[in-house]
């Protein structure tokens, strides 16, 4: 089993920064007795069961998923969701999704008797949406009982304590714990599941890790297939085939996409000149960089920068 703390050094943190990933708590409830909750969903969502038992159904899966205390499910671009749980006689109580997060539904929760569920959304920039949606299946189920999820339950408990504690600074703490919960979910998922081809899987691949370290350490260097294969102690053919099967793209395509992520951050956050950025990222000219950027992002570097600044000013 892989050790998620060793996922390509700290390149997972580097990717998190580049795609501006955030886990934001958006709802939750505590209920006793039979219950059901139905909702329309979109984008990337996560649902964590603090206490009790629940069953999750959504489009894109063959059968419902049983959730146990501490389990988390990540929904990847699904269209609808149904959660049900509780025991007892009578029709299930229908829990309506709330328009905005409020801790009032959880203030009087009883961990001994209630089913307690919290949910949230994963926010990313457009590049991050493409990366993470490619890297995850329709529904990712992370089991708290697995050895790889030892820290997940603690993160969930601390988040819930802040939601219900009504302490000074709780809103800030909830944002931070939501972020840490998402990190623990992805760490555990890397260890528990057979990942589809994509950036999460390639970052976790031990055979390819030496080559990934080179790409991430010096993205502006004109890396060739032979150099990267040598770093991974593989033949060119074996390296190219493994990289494509694990990452879902050839190694030099990965290098170019990594450069584009770095370029987007530089244009988004700094005042760097386009020509200097092109040189730093290994392009022979500003025009070559601009062409590559527009092909990947859909607009020129300067237009990208001006658009983001205008959006932020609004």
Automatic annotation (TrEMBL):
Pfam families per UniProt: Cupin_6, HTH_18
Top-rank lineage group of the source organism: Bacteria
InterPro entries: AraC_lig, AraC_XylS_family_regulators, Homeodomain-like_sf, HTH_AraC, HTH_AraC-typ_CS, Tscrpt_reg_AraC-type_HTH
Keyword Transcription: yes
Swiss-Prot/TrEMBL keywords: DNA-binding, Transcription, Transcription regulation
Domain (HTH araC/xylS-type): residue spans on this chain: 209-307
Protein name (Swiss-Prot/TrEMBL): AraC family transcriptional regulator
Organism: Phytohabitans maris
């Amino acid at each position: 089993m892989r050790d998620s703390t060793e996922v390509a050094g700290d390149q997972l943190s580097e990717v998190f920064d580049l795609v501006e990933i955030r886990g934001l708590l958006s709802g939750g409830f505590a209920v006793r007795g039979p219950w059901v909750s139905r909702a329309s969903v979109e984008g990337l969502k996560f649902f964590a069961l603090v206490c009790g038992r629940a069953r999750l159904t959504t489009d894109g899966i063959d059968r419902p998923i049983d959730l146990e205390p501490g389990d988390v499910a990540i929904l990847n671009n699904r269209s609808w969701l149904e959660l049900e749980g509780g025991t007892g006689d009578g029709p299930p109580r229908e829990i309506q999704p709330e328009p905005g997060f409020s801790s009032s539904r959880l203030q009087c929760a009883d961990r001994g008797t209630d089913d307690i569920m919290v949910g949230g959304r994963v926010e990313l920039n457009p590049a991050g949406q493409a990366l993470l949606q490619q890297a995850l299946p329709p529904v990712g189920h992370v089991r708290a009982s697995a050895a790889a999820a030892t820290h997940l339950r603690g993160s969930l408990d601390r988040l819930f304590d802040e939601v219900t504690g009504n302490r000074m600074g709780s809103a800030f703490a909830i944002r931070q714990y939501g972020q840490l919960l998402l990190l623990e979910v992805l760490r555990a998922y890397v260890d528990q599941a057979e990942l589809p081809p994509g950036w999460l899987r390639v970052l976790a691949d031990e055979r390819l890790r030496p080559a990934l370290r080179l790409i991430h350490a010096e993205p502006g260097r004109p890396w060739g297939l032979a150099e990267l294969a040598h770093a991974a102690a593989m033949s060119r053919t074996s390296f190219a085939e493994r990289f494509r099967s694990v990452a879902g793209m050839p190694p030099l395509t990965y290098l170019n996409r990594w450069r584009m992520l770095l370029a987007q951050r530089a244009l988004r956050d700094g005042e760097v000149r386009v020509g200097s950025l092109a040189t730093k990222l290994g392009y022979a000219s500003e025009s070559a960089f601009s062409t590559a950027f527009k092909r990947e992002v859909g607009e020129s570097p300067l237009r990208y920068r001006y658009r983001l600044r205008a959006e932020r000013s609004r």
